[in-house]
Write a structure and sequence with these properties.
Layout lengths: L3 E8 L32 H9 L13 H6 L5 E15 L5 E18 L2 E10 L19 E13 L2 E7 L14 H4 L10 E8 L3 E9 L11 E10 L6 E12 L2 E14 L2 E14 L8 E15 L2 E12 L5 E13 L4 E12 L5 E11 L4
């Protein structure tokens, strides 16, 4: 055991629609979120559901403040500002304890322009960046102190069809918010991975399809400015809003080479419990004569969750990562999580677990406490 981390973190609400909403018959994010992709602001119905699922279990009441009404131009603008300080404590045996202080500020805005058009943006400020660990075949983004993680122009001509263009996270299968997972961090879907893109959403009662194309945002290192295209398609197998299965494909090319990511995922919900699972396989070919044959990477994620109470979540999570030679890796991660939604504004989450390096046999224990705060319009 090389190191141990305990953190007390103040975080915003989940960045994405909770995929475990499948247990209540919500096939996708469209019902509760302004964007079909699920990230960002809730619509009025979504704010009502959000409030009803907390320990307080109140009924959502829109603000009656004249000042806020004027600020929103009579409901045309939805916006919020969030301050997110965090602290983590780490210790290496034989060395001193160290602390890392990180403060993030979020400004989110959705402006209705009329005739089906709207503009949305998320601007983040931080005192210290936290990029993922770079790999020889996958350099990391080194952002500045201010990061625009989303800036979109969206158009919904009719219900069931939407087009969007701008900067954003690429669409994903099960849309989990933990960006340290292998299926996020190792597939260029982390916190700072927000390329410029154009995408379309087509959905019906039992299905959703999202084709997209993307180009570099400019934040990436020069050699890793990837461009490409992809597609996500999913279907409710039994037609009861609780058995969604989907497939994903993403192809990208940059100066270092190209990659093809294919995956399958499922979201299953049965009353108080359910299962989230995804498996992705990446084939990489580098412009490097030392690796002429390319190599494969596989990431897996499985979560079994249960709600003893509507506001109280328990989950068991297993992850798997394998990378072929010459960059051989074999990692397992096991996590247990308890989350309590005390109100629509406050959530307390506890997580503990361990990561095992199958090649070296070493275990890395991890524990964290998260206290999430958000505003409700």
């Amino acid at each position: 055991m090389r190191w141990f981390v305990i953190g007390l973190i103040l975080l915003p609400a989940q960045a994405f629609a909770l995929p475990n909403m499948i247990r209540l018959g919500y096939v996708n994010c469209v019902t509760c979120h302004v964007s079909p992709q699920g990230a960002g602001m809730l619509n009025e119905y979504g704010r009502g559901i959000d409030d009803a699922q907390s320990l307080r279990a109140g009924e959502y009441q829109p603000t009656s403040s004249r000042f806020l009404s004027a600020l929103s131009i009579k409901g045309r603008i939805d916006q919020d500002v969030r301050a997110v300080p965090s602290m983590a404590l780490s210790h290496t045996p034989g060395g001193p304890y160290t602390t890392v202080d990180l403060t993030r500020f979020f400004y989110r805005n959705v402006t209705t322009l009329g005739k089906g058009f709207r503009a949305s943006a998320v601007v983040n400020g931080e005192n210290e960046s936290s990029p993922r660990k770079a790999k020889p075949y996958d350099p990391t983004i080194k952002p500045g102190h201010v990061v625009v993680t989303s800036a979109l122009l969206q158009y919904r001509p009719i219900e069931g069809v939407e087009f969007a263009a701008g900067r954003d996270a690429l669409p994903t299968g099960i849309n989990i918010s933990d960006q340290s997972t292998f299926i996020k961090a190792r597939n260029r879907l982390g916190y700072y991975d927000t390329p410029n893109q154009a995408k379309a959403f087509f959905w019906g009662k039992r299905w959703l399809a999202t084709p997209f194309v993307f180009t570099p945002s400019g934040n990436e290192p020069a050699g890793a400015r990837e461009r490409g295209e992809g597609m996500i398609a999913e279907y409710d197998l039994l037609g009861r809003g609780a058995t969604v299965a989907g497939v994903t494909v993403t192809r990208g090319t940059d100066r270092t080479g190209h990659r093809l990511v294919t995956g399958a995922y499922t979201r299953l919900g049965f009353g108080p419990w359910g299962i989230l699972a995804e498996h992705d396989m990446t084939t990489r070919h580098l412009n490097d004569p030392r690796v002429p044959q390319g190599f494969r990477q596989q990431t897996s994620y499985a979560q079994l969750f249960v709600y003893p109470r509507e506001w109280f979540l328990l989950a068991a999570i297993t992850e798997r990562l394998t990378v072929q030679r010459p960059y051989a890796e074999s990692l397992w991660a096991f996590k247990g999580e308890a989350s309590m939604r005390l109100s629509s504004n406050w959530t307390l989450s506890l997580r503990s677990g361990a990561q095992r390096d199958a090649l070296s046999g070493k275990w890395t224990p991890i524990a964290s406490v998260q206290f999430a705060a958000k505003t409700v319009n």
